[in-house]
């Protein structure tokens, strides 16, 4: 029963973040800049340190770095296979595939967040609560990011809302699954490293260039820095 509270609060956080992105979509370049910073921040300040922590005494840092690189390359290859057209071909339907790929990756990350939360509560309620607070805070950015992925790729508002619901339910599903399954910490650390590679690619190679396209760079740069700073502050304040 204790898992119901973090499941509901994380769902609300993701959903409100997505609604925020939909309401202020006319400022999409600023939101994209913030999203890029928050995605990169999640990779560097949350996923990577947690991966190293879980791998301590099991894998050398070079192995974690290898799986991070594998995640980066896998996402790169997947995007290139879906995007054989010019980056500036705004009418190409394959842009929707890129949006789906990005939103799907974020939803999978949400599922992983839920699993992490559930497993943390299996260790101890205090650890679970601390981790749930951190995930609740950055889930707001997840909601913004998944909507931006769809809108940026030319998707409709209806499609963005559909993916927002999927992203909001993903951590809830992860929490429920954690009741029935258990993943060894050493395997979990490698999965986190792979997702770290995904997020570095999404933020630096996709969201960030798009946020700077045909817009004043000073404000989008500030938005990016604020996105990274927010995630860093959350991880420091919660001790995750």
Largest sheet: none
Our measurement of the CA-to-CA distance between the termini, rounded to an integer number of angstroms, reads 24 Å
Structural class: mainly alpha
Poorly predicted spans: 84-90
Shape: globular
Work out the count of structural domains. Answer: 1
Tally the beta strands. 0
What gyration radius follows from the Cα positions, in whole Å?
A: 17 Å
Strand content: under 5%
Count of helical regions: 8
Order of helices and strands: HHHHHHHH
Provide the residue-averaged pLDDT: 80
The percentage helix is over 70%
In brief:
The protein has 240 residues and is an all-alpha fold.
3D structure, described in words:
The chain is mostly helical. It has one domain (4-238). The protein contains eight helices and no strands. α1 runs parallel beside α5 and α4 (94-123) packs antiparallel against α7 (185-212). The radius of gyration is 17 Å and the shape is globular. The model is unreliable at 84-90 (pLDDT under 50).
């Amino acid at each position: 029963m204790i898992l119901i509270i973090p499941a509901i609060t994380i769902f609300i956080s993701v959903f409100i973040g997505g609604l925020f992105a939909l309401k202020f979509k006319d400022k999409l370049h600023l939101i994209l800049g913030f999203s890029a910073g928050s995605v990169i921040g999640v990779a560097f300040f949350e996923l990577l340190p947690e991966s190293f922590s879980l791998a301590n005494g099991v894998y050398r840092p070079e192995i974690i770095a290898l799986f991070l690189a594998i995640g980066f390359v896998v996402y790169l290859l997947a995007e290139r296979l879906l995007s054989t057209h010019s980056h500036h071909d705004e009418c190409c339907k394959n842009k929707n595939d890129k949006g789906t790929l990005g939103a799907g990756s974020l939803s999978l990350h949400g599922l992983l967040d839920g699993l992490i939360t559930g497993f943390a509560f299996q260790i101890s309620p205090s650890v679970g609560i601390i981790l749930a607070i951190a995930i609740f805070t950055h889930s707001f950015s997840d909601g913004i990011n998944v909507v931006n992925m769809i809108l940026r790729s030319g998707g409709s508002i209806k499609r963005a809302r559909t993916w927002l619901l999927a992203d909001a339910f993903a951590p809830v599903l992860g929490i429920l699954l954690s009741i029935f399954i258990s993943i060894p910490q050493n395997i979990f650390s490698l999965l986190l490293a792979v997702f770290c590679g995904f997020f570095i690619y999404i933020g630096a190679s996709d969201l960030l260039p798009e946020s700077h396209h045909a817009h004043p760079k000073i404000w989008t740069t500030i938005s990016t820095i604020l996105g990274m700073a927010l995630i860093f502050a959350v991880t420091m304040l919660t001790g995750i």
